[in-house]
C-alpha cells in the first residue's frame, strides 16, 4: 500500500538537500544490511518517488536483498543540526542511471564537504568516503510510504503523520 | 573471520569519533536503519552498542537479534560491515560505566550533552567483518611505538627498592616514555571509599592529600568499578575539578577540609584516562592521566597503561611492607636545632578525624594526621627525632588498619603534604626502615 502523499514537497526538499544518507535492505532470511548513499533526487517521472545514488561495488549485498523483496529503509541526516528522518518503501529496485543522476554526484559531494567541515571532518576524508567512479554509480528508485522522525532524543523513531512538520 | 580483519585491528573505528550506521530487520521483514551514537570495543569477538531510547531498533533486535553495522575508520575513511548478533543488555557494572563515560564524551563532541542518557550497554557477538570496497586515505604517520615504552618503564619499576622511589620512577617514566604531561597517582582507602593524591606531575601544585570519593568523576568510577575509564573528548561531568567541587558542595565536613589543599587537574581536560592499580582483586590505587588534546589516549595507550599498572600493583604491595631492602641513602643529619626564642608553631590535632592544623591552616587528616601527632608527641616528651617504621606499625595512636596498613604510603603522603605546606616541619629518611622528624621552629602540640 503506497500513499502518494507521503513525500510532501517539504519532505522532498529536505531529503534532497544533500544530507548524509544510509540505506538498508533486508533479505528473506531477515538479515538487514546497509550502504552509504551518494545523493538523492526526485524522480522526474513521478513526484512521489525518489532516486538514490549508490556505489554498486559497495552496495552489492544491499542490491541483492532489494531484488528479493524491494523493501528499503533510508535515513537522511543533516550533520550540522542532527535533524534526521527515515523513509521506508516496498518497491525499491535498481533502475538505469541517466545523465542527470551522474550530474548530481559532484554537487552532492561538494555540499557534504562543506557540511561536514562544520563538524570538523577534513575535506580529503569526505572525498575518499564519497568517491565513486561514474561507471560504478547505480540508482535505486523507490516510493516512500512511511516517514519517521529520527532526530536524536526520546522522540526518535516516531512515525510522522503525512504532512506533519519535519523534526 | 578473516584473521587480518579483526576487531583488534579496527579499534579506531570503535572510538565513537564518527557515527556508525545500524541496520536491523523487523519480524515482518521490514528493514530499519539508524545512526549509532556509540559502538564500543568489548573484546576481539564482541562490541557494545549504546541503548538510549526505546525505538524501532530496540524492538527489532529483541525480536530478531541479527543486525549489520557500517563503520568507518576515522583516519582513512575505510569502511567495514560487521554482521552482529544481539546477546544481552548490561545496565550496571564495569562495561556499562565505561560506556556511560565514553558516551558523555561523545555527547559533548557532537553537541548532544543532555540528550544522551545510557539505559544499557547492548552486547553483540561479531559474526563476520567485511571490508567494503572503495577509496581510502593512507594511514596516518605512526606515532612512537608503545611496546618499547612499556618495556623500558617496566624495567625501571622493577629496579625500585622503595615505595617512594617506585612512585617517582612511575611518574617520570610516564612523562619521558609515554609523553604524558599531566598525571596523578591516587592511593585507595577502601574502608573510607576514598582515594587520596599521593603524587602528581604537570600541575602548579602537587595536591598531595586531596581526596576523591569512589564513584565520583573518571577516577572515582574507575575505582568503584575497578575498570579503566577513558574519555577522548571533553566531558565536563567527569572532570576531576568538577567532581571535587560537587563533592565539596555536598557539605561534608571531611570534604570541606580538602578545600584547604590546592587541587591539581586541568580545568577542562579534552582527554582523560583512569586505570585501576590492583594487587590480586584488591584496589591499591588509581593512575589518572589527562590532556588538553582530544583523542590523546587511544585503545593502545589504555592497553599499555593497564599492563603497566598490572605490574605496578604487586610492586607497590611488596614495597609497602619493606619486603625489599631500601638502599636509598639516608638524608645527612646536620640540621641545626630550632631557634628556641622563636614563637612556637601551634600544631592542633583533632582526634575525631585525625585532622591536623598548623597555625590554624589545615594540613592533613586521617592516618597521616595521627602519625604526625604521634611523632610530635614523642619528640616533645622524649626528645626523640628518629623513629622506626617497625615501632610505628605497633603504635595504637596511629590507628593503622590491621590487614593492610599502608604505613609507607601514609608517610610519603605526609612528607609531601608537609613539603607543600611548611618549611618548619619535615620528615625525611634516616636509613633503612627509619624516618626522621626535622623541626626548624619550636612546636606546641594541642590535642583535643
TrEMBL record, chain A:
Domain of life: Bacteria
InterPro entries linked: Split_barrel_FMN-bd (IPR012349)
Gene3D superfamilies reported for this sequence: Electron Transport, Fmn-binding Protein, Chain A
Protein name: Pyridoxamine 5'-phosphate oxidase putative domain-containing protein
Higher taxonomy: Bacteria, Pseudomonadati, Pseudomonadota, Betaproteobacteria, Rhodocyclales
UniProtKB/TrEMBL annotation, chain B:
Domain Pyridoxamine 5'-phosphate oxidase N-terminal per the UniProt entry, residue ranges: 9-85
One Pfam family from the record: GAF_2
Residue ranges constituting the GAF domain according to the UniProt record: 161-310
Domain of life: Bacteria
Protein name, per record: GAF domain-containing protein
Taxonomic path: Bacteria, Pseudomonadati, Pseudomonadota, Betaproteobacteria, Rhodocyclales
Amino acid at each position: 500500500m503506497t500513499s502518494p502523499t507521503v513525500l510532501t514537497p517539504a519532505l522532498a526538499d529536505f531529503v534532497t538537500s544533500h544530507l548524509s544518507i544510509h540505506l538498508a535492505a533486508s533479505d528473506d532470511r531477515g538479515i538487514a544490511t546497509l550502504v552509504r548513499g551518494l545523493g538523492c533526487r526526485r524522480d522526474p517521472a513521478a513526484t512521489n518517488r525518489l532516486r538514490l545514488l549508490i556505489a554498486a561495488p559497495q552496495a552489492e549485498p544491499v542490491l541483492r536483498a532489494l531484488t528479493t523483496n524491494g523493501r528499503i529503509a533510508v535515513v537522511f541526516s543533516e550533520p550540522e543540526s542532527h535533524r534526521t528522518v527515515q523513509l521506508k518503501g516496498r518497491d525499491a529496485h535498481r533502475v538505469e542511471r541517466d545523465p542527470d543522476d551522474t550530474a548530481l554526484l559532484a554537487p552532492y559531494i561538494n555540499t557534504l564537504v562543506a557540511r561536514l567541515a562544520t563538524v570538523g571532518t577534513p575535506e580529503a576524508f569526505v572525498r575518499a568516503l564519497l568517491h565513486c567512479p561514474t561507471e560504478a554509480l547505480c540508482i535505486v528508485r523507490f516510493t516512500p510510504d512511511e516517514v519517521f522522525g529520527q532526530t536524536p532524543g526520546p522522540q526518535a523513531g516516531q512515525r510522522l503523520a503525512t504532512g506533519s512538520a519535519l523534526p | 573471520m578473516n584473521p587480518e580483519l579483526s576487531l583488534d585491528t579496527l579499534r579506531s573505528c570503535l572510538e565513537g569519533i564518527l557515527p556508525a550506521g545500524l541496520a536491523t530487520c523487523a519480524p515482518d521483514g521490514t528493514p530499519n536503519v539508524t545512526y549509532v551514537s556509540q559502538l564500543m570495543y568489548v573484546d576481539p569477538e564482541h562490541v557494545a552498542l549504546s541503548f538510549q531510547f526505546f525505538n524501532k531498533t530496540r524492538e527489532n533486535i529483541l525480536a530478531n537479534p541479527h543486525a549489520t553495522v557500517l563503520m568507518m575508520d576515522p583516519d582513512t575513511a575505510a569502511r567495514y560491515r560487521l554482521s552482529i548478533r544481539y546477546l544481552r543488555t548490561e545496565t550496571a557494572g564495569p562495561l556499562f560505566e565505561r560506556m556511560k563515560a565514553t558516551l558523555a564524551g561523545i555527547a559533548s563532541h557532537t553537541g548532544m550533552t543532555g540528550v544522551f542518557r545510557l539505559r544499557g550497554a547492548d552486547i553483540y557477538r561479531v559474526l563476520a567483518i567485511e571490508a567494503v570496497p572503495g577509496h581510502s586515505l593512507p594511514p596516518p604517520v605512526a606515532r612512537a611505538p608503545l611496546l618499547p615504552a612499556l618495556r623500558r618503564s617496566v624495567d625501571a619499576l622493577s629496579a625500585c627498592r622503595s615505595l617512594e622511589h617506585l612512585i617517582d620512577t612511575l611518574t617520570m617514566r610516564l612523562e619521558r616514555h609515554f609523553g604524558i604531561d599531566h598525571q596523578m597517582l591516587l592511593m585507595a582507602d577502601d574502608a573510607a571509599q576514598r582515594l587520596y593524591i599521593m603524587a602528581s606531575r604537570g600541575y602548579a601544585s602537587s595536591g598531595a592529600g586531596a581526596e576523591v570519593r569512589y564513584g565520583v568523576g573518571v577516577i572515582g568510577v574507575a575505582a568503584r568499578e575497578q575498570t579503566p575509564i577513558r574519555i577522548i573528548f571533553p566531558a565536563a561531568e567527569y572532570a576531576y575539578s568538577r567532581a571535587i567541587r560537587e563533592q565539596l558542595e555536598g557539605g561534608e565536613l571531611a570534604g570541606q577540609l580538602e578545600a584547604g589543599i590546592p587541587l591539581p587537574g586541568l580545568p577542562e581536560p579534552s582527554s582523560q584516562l583512569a586505570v585501576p592499580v590492583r594487587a590480586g582483586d584488591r584496589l591499591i590505587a588509581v593512575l589518572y592521566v589527562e590532556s588538553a588534546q582530544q583523542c590523546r589516549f587511544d585503545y593502545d595507550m589504555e592497553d599499555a597503561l593497564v599492563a603497566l599498572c598490572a605490574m605496578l600493583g604487586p610492586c607497590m604491595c611488596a614495597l609497602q611492607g619493606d619486603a625489599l631492602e631500601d638502599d636509598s641513602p639516608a638524608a645527612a643529619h646536620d640540621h641545626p636545632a630550632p631557634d628556641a626564642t622563636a614563637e612556637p608553631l601551634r600544631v592542633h590535632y583533632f582526634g575525631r578525624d585525625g585532622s591536623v592544623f598548623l597555625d590554624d591552616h589545615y594540613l592533613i587528616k586521617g592516618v597521616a594526621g595521627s602519625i604526625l601527632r604521634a611523632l610530635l608527641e614523642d619528640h616533645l616528651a622524649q626528645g626523640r627525632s628518629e623513629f622506626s617504621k617497625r615501632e610505628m606499625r605497633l603504635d595504637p595512636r596511629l590507628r593503622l588498619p590491621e590487614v593492610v596498613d599502608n604505613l609507607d604510603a601514609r608517610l610519603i603522603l605526609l612528607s609531601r603534604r608537609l613539603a607543600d605546606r611548611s618549611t618548619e616541619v619535615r620528615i625525611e629518611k634516616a636509613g633503612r626502615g627509619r624516618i626522621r622528624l626535622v623541626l626548624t621552629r619550636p612546636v606546641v602540640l594541642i590535642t583535643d
